[in-house]
Amino acid sequence: MKIERAPATVLAPVPAVLVTVAGGDKGNIITIAWVGTVCSTPPMVSISVRPSRYSHELLCENREFVVNMPRASQVEPVDYCGVVSGRDVDKWQATGFTPLPATKVGAPLIAECPVNLECVVRHQLTLGAHDLFIGEIVATHFDEEVLDSRGHPDNAALEALAYNNGDYWSLGEKVGSYGFSAKLRKGRSG
To answer: Which residues make Cβ contacts (< 8 Å) with residue 59, sequence separation at least 6?
Structure first.
């Protein structure tokens, strides 16, 4: 039996990422779980940020950001960057993360994150509690050790971090690949 509840953001898990924005000497880091791919050509991602957040102010001023994908083993500093304000704390110093210059935007990369997506804001939409920023990915960076022999991301090496209704999770085993169900069904009918 299905139980109806009040509408809620229970779509989970979702990626837990660190977003860096330009501003001041080193910019700021914010933890974001409201993030996702929204277009393949041109490549675009979205992030949702509350207007009360310091990073929101910097995003509106600079119109650029970097999505940094942390490892599950970095969960403590990831969480910390989401519970303190950059107005009050230098998150770079507090976490030990290292800012690296980006190649296309003013926001820094986080050296310790294995994947970094440089983005330019193309659209901003006020939704309610959050503003949605849609960023075009203008440069992508990978740590060499997270790429397989073909130059593709190795999901096991990435150690992706997910957020699930208040909890952080590492991703488990591979259970299928795009198109595998059609191949299985064709094999059963042939």
So the answer is: 21, 49, 65, 121, 133
